[in-house]
Amino acid sequence: MRALVVYESLWGNTESIARAVARQLEQRMTVVITDSEGAPASIDGIDLLVVGAPTHAFSMSRPATRADAVERHGAPRTVTRGIREWLAALPRMSSAVPAATFDTRADSPRLPGSAARAARHRLRALRFDVSDGAVSFWVDGYAGPLIDGELERAAEWAAALVASAERSARVTRS
Ligand SMILES: Cc1cc2nc3c(=O)[nH]c(=O)nc-3n(C[C@H](O)[C@H](O)[C@H](O)COP(=O)(O)O)c2cc1C
Question: Do the Cβ atoms of 154 and 102 come closer than 8 Å?
Fold first, then answer.
């Protein structure tokens, strides 16, 4: 089975979660991990898609929030094509490939709104199977680091995704 993990990350927190997820998936699947700038234009031959993004202004980042991150908050990376733009260009699926989403968010104060939920909404419209849901991982402030235990929680979440993708593949084959 093959998995694709696509992430966007300005400080590296979302990337760290994505790498923890990929490491866990690799125990049972062939995994390609890439940032959104390098992500493929279509999802052919993939059994599981995992998408991770930082929450900006209650949702997926936009060019203006990414500029704000760099100019006002000192983010070390610029991102031209984020998850929002990548998903906007992705074609509709002909079969319901499993897809799961995660985001990173500021731990304090905890605000409503989630990039993972917004990305899941878009993936559902593209006819992915999004029944695995959307999950948030918490960071300290805007820059991070991740709150203690989040990398372990990401690995547990990824193990559950593998089990779910394997069930889904068995149903599709039978
Ligand atoms: C412009 C901007 C807006 C943000 N808005 C939110 C928000 O609405 N809710 C939240 O929980 N965190 C918010 N954050 C914090 C980000 O979620 C945090 O910077 C991100 O998780 C760090 O991930 P990264 O290291 O992968 O970039 C915002 C950060 C920036 C720079």
Answer: yes
Displacement of CA 160 from its chain's centroid (Å): 15
Distance between CA 153 and CA 163 in Å, rounded? 16
The pLDDT of residue 73 is 98
Torsion angle defined by CA atoms of residues 3, 160, 150 and 63, in that order, rounded to the nearest 10 degrees: 40
Domain range spanning residue 14? 2-173
Domain count, the chain: 1
> Ligand 1 pocket, 107 CB below 6 A?
no
pLDDT tier, 127 (very low <50, low <70, confident <90, very high otherwise): very high
User: In this structure, how many other beta carbons lie within 10 angstroms of the beta carbon of residue 19?
Assistant: 17
Question: What is the pTM assigned to this prediction?
Answer: 0.97
What average pLDDT score do residues 35-63 get? 97
* SS3 state of residue 6: strand
Which ligand 1 atom minimizes the distance to the CA of 8? 26
Which residue owns the Cα nearest ligand 1 atom 15?
142
**Cα(156)–Cα(55) distance, rounded to whole angstroms?**
21
Q: Supply the CATH number for residue 12's domain.
A: 3.40.50.360
Pocket of ligand 1, candidates 139, 140, 150: which has the most ligand atoms within 8 Å of its Cβ, to mutate?
Answer: 139
